[in-house]
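[job 0412] stage=complex_fold ligand=NDP status=START
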Amino acid sequence: MILLDGKKISSDIKTEIAEIVALFRKKGLRPPHLVTVSVGENAASQSYIRSKIKACEKVGFDSTNIKLDQNISESELLDVIEKLNVDPLVDGFIVQLPLPESIDEFKIISSIDPSKDVDGFHPVNLGKLLIGIDTFISATPMGILEMLKRYNIPTEGKDIAVLGRSNIVGKPIAVCLMQKTYPGDASVSVLHSRTKNLREKLRAADIVIAAIGKPHFVTSDMVGENAVVIDVGINSIPDAKNPGLTKLVGDVDFDNVAPKCSYITPVPGGVGLMTVAALLLNTLKAYKQRNGID
Ligand code: NDP
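[job 0412] stage=complex_fold status=DONE, emitting structure tokens
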């Protein structure tokens, strides 16, 4: 069994990006600039934003965090987005989700200039993804693709079971892996809460991608011998060894599933770390497109 080491690959990606940014600076070019927009004080969102800003610093990107009041109106937020859309010094920006209930998320995402939509959530970018045109792939699916690439895991002709059909993970990764490219050319099944014979379908898959948000849901009897298992889940559960504290686990029962696998991601230390690295790759791509750099 080989561990798919998100810590190592994400660190490699950051080193590669930092080298590219250093070259830009040498040529007198400004570095890429990522802006994060957050509304309110959601603790998880603030923590995600801090990790994104830290990653920008590490690779030499400029970053700006725009923190908006919880009570901001939809039209005020739309004004902020419009300013970012036209700012020539902003290469990419993200609006951290979730937004307060009074704000229509779809309307906000749709108002972002698709060429600056480094989260890959804009309907134009999702449409391009579906028809196989180069675009920004949202960070988690993109992180999974990078992982498959960097470990040279074959996907052509493979049966892949994606467990979960969310707009941010399940659907986009399924679409990516069915495209005529690498990683892709696979036969993808998308499994969810209404799926019949889930266990058998998972067992038959060469590659399982679990993204349902249920701790240790995928047990060893649901996974075939030598399967590749990618665990996207991030779940906080009580830590039996440290009463009163919690720990992070995935959607896969790692200890019992890992011995059957050819490759598996740990949680933490797997897909989660790839997500921020993928956002940096998207920001670099937006910067290059904006500045006509190959
Ligand atoms: P959602 O809650 O949006 O979607 C969960 C999906 O799982 C749904 O499609 C749901 O089916 C399906 N599901 C739930 N229970 C079952 C079940 N018992 N059997 C079969 N299918 C089931 O989740 P997300 O995609 O947003 O996130 C999934 C997990 O990934 C979470 O743990 C989240 O924290 C993590 N995550 C990790 C990221 C990372 O960077 N590593 C990034 C994003 C998410 P149905 O549609 O039928 O309801």
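The chain has two domains: 28-113, 139-272.
[job 0412] exit 0
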